[in-house]
Amino acid sequence: MLNPPDKGSIFLRGQNITIAKVDLNKIRTRIGMVFQHFNLFAHLKAIDNVSIGLRRVKGFSKEEAHKKALEALSRVKLQDWANHYPAELSGGQQQRVGIARALAMEPDVILFDEPTSALDPELIGEVLQVMLNLAKAGTTMLVVTHEMGFARAVASEMIFLDQGVVVERGTPEHFSTSIKSDRVKNFLSQLDILYGSHEKLIKESEGEEKI
Description:
Blueprint: E1 11-12, E2 15-16, H1 24-28, E3 31-34, H2 46-56, H3 62-75, H4 91-104, E4 109-113, H5 121-136, E5 141-144, H6 148-154, E6 158-162, E7 165-170, H7 172-177, H8 182-195, H9 199-205
Parallel strand pairs: 3-4, 4-5
Antiparallel strand pairs: 1-2, 6-7
């Protein structure tokens, strides 16, 4: 609701969050956000970037927030970097702090806005691995991404958008075997030309090898 929709409605667990009487601040505590460009506080250590929302929004004590933040950092394998500032972390590590920040709030859903697009190629894998682990753990995620191999590996539903219009939607299997739109076919063929087959990531997600 930072950008109110022109039409339609948004529902969170059956509740319409676009109507006037909704307490947006309360709703926002139930929705996590992982940004494209990290958006960490440069003057705060990783542990404080994760705990600040728990203290300011949820009213946790400093000790409670610190404990929960450390647990969240452990889930993204950054507990040993808790006392480092963003400038001391790689891009992949900063994005994992961003994911931990969202996880710590225990939201109903986490929104990811192109979470790997600002990363160097060698750092993409570590972020995708964290997201893959979250998917396997049952975390509900809505992900905007061009990483089609990753999407096929973890999604329950995929939606292809072009100019704000839904071109095609379906299961990952549908996007592997039953694509109907020429627009989608062309897009995926161009990705394969640029990056090669994405089947490797699917196999890796099934445990044949690590990302």
